[in-house]
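Example record

One chain of 450 residues, shown exactly as stored in the release files.
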Amino acid sequence: MRVVGVHIADVAHFIPENSPLDMILRNKTTSIYMVDTVYHMLPLPMCLACSLLPGKDRLAFSVFWRIDSSGKVLKERIAKTVIKSCTQLAYEHAQSIIDRPGQSLTARDFPLIVSQKFQLQDVVESVRTLHRLSRKLRAKRLEAGAVKLDQPKIGFQLDPKTGQPQKFHREVIKESNELIEEFMLLANITVAKRIHRKFPDRAVLRCHDMPDRHQFEKLANDFKAAGVKFDLTSTSAIASSLEKAIEGSKDKEAAKTILTCMLTKPMIRARYFCSGLTESEDEFKHYLLSIPIYTHFTSPIRRYPDILVHRLLAAAINSGPEPTLNPNEVHKIANVCNVQKYNAKCAGNDSINLYFMKHLENVKKLKMRAAVFKVGLSYIDTILIDTGHHVKVTYGGGKATFIDNVTPKTIEIVHKKDNTERSMTLSIFSECAVTVTCKKNQLKGKLVWL
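Predicted structure tokens for this chain:
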């Protein structure tokens, strides 16, 4: 049996409802993350004052659980607290602990522990325990039908003087990321249940609707044309079919890239809503997470809905005044949050695309891995495996012909040069090497003949 606590900065304590700052935040609703900067939702001094820094007393909202060794939650408790962290680990620090089970670790490899009550070994054991429990929680979620459709994300190394992109890298999701994700999800679910139980008419929740039936029918036809057996009847079936399709493919990373793209396309965006303006609790469901009720509680420094949730939660545990917003007002604010969240996401993606294209212009061309999405006689549609960009790729002097009576559609490309003939066979889910360039803000690709 373990007691696990998730502690979130009590931002709402410093922002009274309907105060001038609160009214500004209702319009901003979110931080915006660009490649070269962050446009914070909160004033920067407030961000720093609320952040849970080591050795500093900080107001927090804490969710505690008693969890057994199988990952079953036996009891929960929510409270306003004052916490003082003993250290601040980055993901790579936690990952180094996870990667070296049973090994002794030295303090010089980790941030300073500012409390005399704790030693490095205490931190190490805590991370290892949290890792074990998070794996149990994750297994239960996936068994219940949760689907992971991770799109590639890239980061950049910028020249400190000019701000120009020097390098880019694909951000890899590691077990330390998944550890945090599991407990954040559990906190959000726990809080969603509590605020809805106390305020069923005006809880701020987040749902993800099932895709439109016609969109799924089209997707089923696309899978059939690709020669893939795919069951779309439930999220559990989707997760199982996705795993089997990837494992059955010759080029697994390419298959995962294309299948994830195909599944993501018909999905409806998740959205915030007011619980009191729905016809039934069936509308609360989060489709991809495969859970009946959900909200956002864990990031009040960068998301306004979390501040609304904190106010409701404080009232629900008798630690704060009851919010004055009625269901219609909550509904209007939720809609603004939905629009602004989408706009912020688009701005962030546009920033990434701009820097990627600028990097390509600077280096002239890059050799990259591509996953084939669609084949044709003049070019193939591909998705770059490490960035997620869609690129049309020409054959670099090769001539393509369709191979008859084959599912999925398959082409053979023959390339002749210097009395040497080479051929390549490609179909959907194939991986190939391509040279990528950028001209007039458009990505172009050419097949690499190895």
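Notes: Residues 65 and 101 are 25 Å apart (CA to CA).
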